[in-house]
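Please predict the structure of the following assembly.
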Amino acid sequence: DGGITQSPKYLFRKEGQNVTLSCEQNLNHDAMYWYRQDPGQGLRLIYYSQIVNDFQKGDIAEGYSVSREKKESFPLTVTSAQKNPTAFYLCASSILGGNQQPQHFGDGTRLSIL
Amino acid sequence: QKEVEQDPGPLSVPEGAIVSLNCTYSNSAFQYFMWYRQYSRKGPELLMYTYSSGNKEDGRFTAQVDKSSKYISLFIRDSQPSDSATYLCATPAPGAAGNKLTFGGGTRVLVKP
């Protein structure tokens, strides 16, 4: 089945630690996205990538980093500079071709502070 | 003012009732609108996708767009307990690179048996 796989489902971070969230898709989509979801605030865009080896900052990129070495993979690193990392992180992908293409989501990673 | 706003709910209805959800938006340049359903601890899944004013029906779901009022609605007929979820409206930012979506905060719906 085609889809987006995020792992792990739950992740805990210690103070001063960087953690990496995995996102893999087999939909052959060019574009991939990372969102952060906090209660009552909807989804906020962290980073997005339209093509391999290229990515752009979203609305809340500070304290995060990404890479796009393969079309299928778009890992997100939450660095120690992100002071409030506790949230639900969602990865999405879409076909490129105008800004009307809907995005398809994985089932998220819940990150908490130890 | 947020670009897309939703009442957070919760909206509680008895099984079989019609669920009525809505979003308001501020930018008249928004053209495409999407409704996502999100179950607890899951990612959002695309329910409906509309363009321009008018109605679009898909089974028990009807999406409505009123561009003159900057108002979009989702109606769920014959609601079931399995419809209990958070419903998010979203729209692509016009002219924005990378297909950026702007989301409302979501409305939580509870359908009671």
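The longest strand of chain A covers residues 43-51. The two ends of chain A are 35 Å apart (CA to CA).
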